[in-house]
Design a protein that fits this description.
Blueprint: E1 4-9, E2 12-17, E3 22-26, H1 28-42, H2 48-58, H3 65-80, H4 93-99, E4 112-113, E5 134-135, H5 138-150, H6 166-173, H7 177-189
Antiparallel strand pairs: 1-2, 2-3, 4-5
Helix pairs in contact: 1-3, 2-3, 5-7
Length: about 190
Amino acid sequence: MVVIHQYKNNGYNIVMDVNSGSIHVVDDIVYDMIQVVEPLVSAGIKDADTLRMAVLNLGILHYDKKALEEALDEVLELEAQGQLFAPDIYENYVYDFKKRQTVVKALCLHIAHDCNLACKYCFAEEGEYHGRRALMSFEVGKKALDFLVANSGRRTADELGRGQKIGGIRQKSGGTFPQEIPLYIDHQRGPSER
């Protein structure tokens, strides 16, 4: 599928061919010509003579015939160089890509919906995060880690990190969740990986 983006910005006519990655700054007539030629190319008309006849006989563009022919030549030259109306070489790979087995590479747990710093400028609304203060339960954290381990492919539990806030939260929670999760991570790693 041909994908062309055209826009005008600060007096420039900008044309981007997404599939080739080419960006062009063109004059008004070439800009208008691309808008006329694109649907024809997308419909499968690739022959230069057929495109020339179609564009010149449509009468959509109000420029003199010589200027139209020169603009069309420029557009066709860009197409021949693979810089305009380029085919999507990845189109057929999308279906296989969607069928691939995915793996979870990272999981960030929001274990503490709380902060005791109470900074007025903080996005967390002085530690309340626009809601009530709370800590994640051990069961929810354990399920999240089990999900991560089950869906992380060849990665090992040795790659599990503990984060930075656990020490302060451990004191606040009375040693429930934050103290148990690192122990659970160590348990997942096994004695030889600790």
